[in-house]
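Justification of computing resources. Each target in the renewal requires a structure prediction run like the one illustrated here; the chain below, 249 residues long, is used simply to show the kind of job we budget for.
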Amino acid sequence: MTKLSVIIPTFNEADFIGQAVRSVSFADEIIVVDSLSTDKTVDIASSMGCRIFKRKFDNFSNQKNHALQFASGEWVLFLDADERITGALKHEIIEAINSDKYSGYKLYFPHFFMNRFLYHHSNMVTRLVKRNACRFTGSVHEKLLVEGTIGRLKNQVNHYTYKGLKHYISKKDHYSDFQSQQALKKNKKASLFIFFFKPFYRFFNSFILRGGFKDGIPGLVVARINAYGVFSRYAKLVIAKNHQNQPRP
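Resulting structure tokens:
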């Protein structure tokens, strides 16, 4: 049988890590790379037999690449603490890695928000890969590069990414903080056109082009918050630039 390693990056995920680990109990090893949590995340994961590696967070790619070097399986599945592998997907994963048909597989992620799965606010993301044929690049929205062809699995990952409205907005604020600082380092600018167009397009893409309107009110809420996240990023960039250009006393 082909050996499978699971890598789970964590930071203060005590309420969720247990369910994530149980959902991948079929794996040969589970590696948790923890960003110095201050809650019981590490204790819970350790008690469930996970291998623990602690590393101060700098960006998502470096965190996952760091964990990747400790994996011993021929295949690696990357999972977040708020994601669950379903029984149907488990069997599909086992069949896929033993068939050795592709170098990696995209998994289907409908997001869970306002007590329902949003099937039109979903992603196909490469998460299951051959260990020796992959690496991550990028800092915020990291990208997994894979040598070889990529297949797709049909069954969904249950993704409980948004733990309520306040958490969703907080998550967007966290991303916009990081993204605005990255834009500042690259000396990017935010014009009136960008302020108007980019948030509008994010809403239009989420609600119309991707069919978010079919998800009803939750789909509308998601589209509005996504647009807010883009607006917030550029607003913070302008504030940071103004602060940077202020004369020093």
